[in-house]
Write a structure and sequence with these properties.
- This protein is an alpha+beta fold and 263 residues long.
- Helix content is 30%, strand content 30%.
- Strands 1, 2, 3, 4, 5, 6, 7, 8, 9 and 10 form a ten-stranded mixed sheet that branches.
- α1 packs antiparallel against α2.
- The longest helix has 21 residues.
- It is elongated, with a radius of gyration of 22 Å.
- The chain starts with a strand and ends in a 6-residue tail after the last strand.
- Bound molecules: nickel (II) ion.
- The site of nickel (II) ion (NI) has 4 residues, from β6.
Length: 263
């Protein structure tokens, strides 16, 4: 079983009672900077309490070990992603010790609703940086070997001959190592520039079927869009590699591609 818990708007303002809300810090009168720390813990569920772990213990470790550690290691000297990444990797084993017997599987730092760093137990010093992007585009789903009626049955409204639009949300995750206090995972600005240049500019406000070469013969389904974006980004980042591409076509439908062969 896994339990996921986050604290918001830290650091606190020194009050004993800290509100875990979006509204601000402990005394309820001041606005806190946007920050989210999230822990994923795993373990058996206690038969008597039904708890895997008391979330108060997770909150305490996130505040006293992780948030405090980040402040002294990274946030105190700068908020660039490499120094935050190094700090997050550095505090991970301390947080893991504090949460035992529950096993800490990953720690995430959300610097904004659109940017997050994550480190997990699998690779010491491996950091994932995820950024989200948006573009609006038109497409039409159809197979030329099928009749109009068959296309309508298979793709429904998405087969409208005049096309239709979506506001796509793209989440790009890159993965890199952090070496002893000097992070080398890509900086946010670099990821931003690469994705804007290779994906957002070419796709935004376009008709994907008619204006993007990859979709001249390929159906622009959300699955194929994720694959095409992967191909445009793989190998393009300095000092890190592409780990996953998620594309949300609507808030209910998302495709994720992590490389490898597609049958
Ligand atoms: Ni559609």
């Amino acid at each position: 079983m896994r339990l996921i818990r986050e604290i918001r708007c830290y650091p606190d303002d020194g009050n004993e009672v800290v509100a875990n809300t979006w509204a601000g810090t402990g005394n309820g009168t001041s606005l806190g900077a946007y920050r989210v720390l999230r822990a994923v813990v795993e373990g058996p569920v206690d038969r008597r309490t039904g708890y895997l772990c008391d979330i108060k213990d997770i909150d305490r470790i996130l505040r006293t070990v992780v948030a405090a550690g980040l402040q002294t290691r990274g946030e105190g000297t700068g908020s660039d992603s490499p120094s935050l990444a190094a700090a997050l990797a550095d505090v991970f084993p301390h947080a893991a010790r504090g949460l035992r017997p529950a096993a800490l599987r990953s720690l995430e730092l959300h610097a904004s609703p659109h940017t997050r760093l994550a480190v997990d137990e699998r690779g010491a010093g491996m950091i994932r940086l995820t950024q989200s992007f948006e573009f609006s585009a038109a497409h039409r789903l159809f197979c030329k070997e099928l009749s109009d009626e068959e296309n309508r049955r298979l793709f429904g409204k998405c087969s409208n001959p005049k096309g239709h639009g979506h506001n796509y949300l793209v989440e790009v995750t890159v993965c890199g190592t952090v070496d002893s206090g000097k992070g080398t995972v890509a900086d946010v600005g670099h990821v931003d520039r690469v994705v804007l240049e290779r994906v957002i500019e070419p796709f935004d406000h376009k008709n994907l079927n008619l204006e993007c070469a990859e979709f001249a013969q390929l159906n622009p389904s959300v699955e194929n869009i994720a694959r095409v974006i992967w191909d445009r980004l793989a190998g393009a980042f300095d000092g890190c590699r592409l780990a996953s591409v998620r594309v949300w076509e609507t808030p209910k439908t998302c495709a994720e591609y992590t490389g490898g062969d597609v049958p």
